Amino acid sequence: GIFDRKLRYFTADGQLVPTPQEAELEQRQAKEQALLEKEQAFLEKEQAFLEKEQVFLEKERERQAKEKLAQKLRELGIDPDAI
User: Fold this and answer.
1) Which residues does residue 16 pair with via DSSP β-bridges, in sequence order?
2) What is the rounded average pLDDT for all residues in the chain?
3) 74 lies in a domain?
4) 0.70 exceeded by pTM
5) Which residue of 20, 27, 55, 60 has the fewest C-beta atoms within 10 A of its own C-beta?
6) Helix-strand-coil percent breakdown of the chain, rounded to 5?
7) How far apart are CA 33 and CA 58, in angstroms?
8) How confident is the model at residue 47 (pLDDT cuts 50, 70, 90)?
9) What is the pLDDT of residues 15-39, one digit of tens each?
């Protein structure tokens, strides 16, 4: 049949048969898409890890601040557990 003013092959159900160049391009694009999807998944995992790390660091800073306050209270003769 004719497609885009060129003589082309079609399957029995009317689907255009890609040329070798078109098939190679489709394969390359599929590989690029798969690579992009893997990269996106990696970035999402990395983002989740960084968010968890941020929460951990915030809790650690809070714990250190509480410990510093408790130490100061002890220096002043106040039992921090009694407050």
Assistant:
1) 10
2) 97
3) yes
4) no
5) 20
6) 70, 5, 20
7) 37
8) very high
9) 999 999 999 999 999 999 999 999 9
